[in-house]
Amino acid sequence: MESTVEVDKGPAPEHQSIAAAQPPPSPSEIAQMVCGSCRRLLKYSRGARHVQCSCCQTVNFVLEADQVGQVKCGSCAVLLMYPYGASSIRCSSCQFVTEIGEHNKRPPWSVQQGQPPPPANPVH
C-alpha cells in the first residue's frame, strides 16, 4: 500500500491579500545620529529613544536636539557631538580628549537649524 503526504501550500494566489505599499517616510520624519561605537551615520524615525546600529549592533540612546552640544576636537578639528553637561569628550578619530569649556562650545544643533532654543528650566 502506497501512502501519499499532502503539503498545505496555503491559499491559492488569487486569494492572497496584497499589503498596500507604504510610502517612504518624509524627510521631516527622519533624524540622523552617529553610532557611539563604530561612528557610522544612522538614520531613524523621529521620536525613537534607542537606535540599534546595523553595522556593529550597538544600541544607541537618542538625545533630543536641544540636549546635544558640538565642539571641534582640540587635536584634529573634527566636529564632535556630546550630551550637554559633559566636561570633556574623547575624539573617535584621534582619541584626543577635548575639554568642553565656554570658549569652545557651539550652539546646540537645534539653534543651528533655526529652531528656537528650549525654554530655560527655573531652579526651585
The major sheet is characterized as:
2 strands, antiparallel
The portion of residues forming beta strands comes to: 25-35%
The class by helix and strand makeup works out as mainly beta
Number of strands: 8
How are the strands ordered across the major sheet? Answer: 1-2
> How would the global form be characterised?
globular
Mean pLDDT: 75
Order of helices and strands: EEEEEEEEH
Low-pLDDT residue intervals, each spanning 5 or more residues: none
In whole angstroms, the N-to-C terminal distance is 88 Å
Number of helices: 1
Instruction: Name the helicity range.
Output: under 10%
Please tell me how large the radius of gyration is: 24 Å
Describe this structure in words.
The protein is mainly beta and 124 residues long. Among the domains are: 26-62, no CATH class; 65-109, no CATH class. 3% of the residues lie in helices and 26% in strands. The protein has 1 helix and 8 strands, in the order ββββββββα. The protein has a two-stranded antiparallel ribbon. A hairpin with a 6-residue loop joins strand 3 (50-52) and strand 4. The termini are far apart. Residues 1-12 have a biased composition (Basic and acidic residues). Residues 1-27, 105-124 are annotated as: Disordered. Its main location: nucleus. This is Protein LOL2.
Write the layout of secondary structure elements.
Elements: E1 30-34, E2 41-45, E3 50-52, E4 59-61, E5 68-72, E6 79-83, E7 88-90, E8 97-99, H1 109-112
Antiparallel strand pairs: 1-2, 3-4, 5-6, 7-8
Task: Provide keyphrases for this structure.
single chain, 124 residues, mainly beta, two-stranded antiparallel ribbon, 3% helix, Znf_LSD1
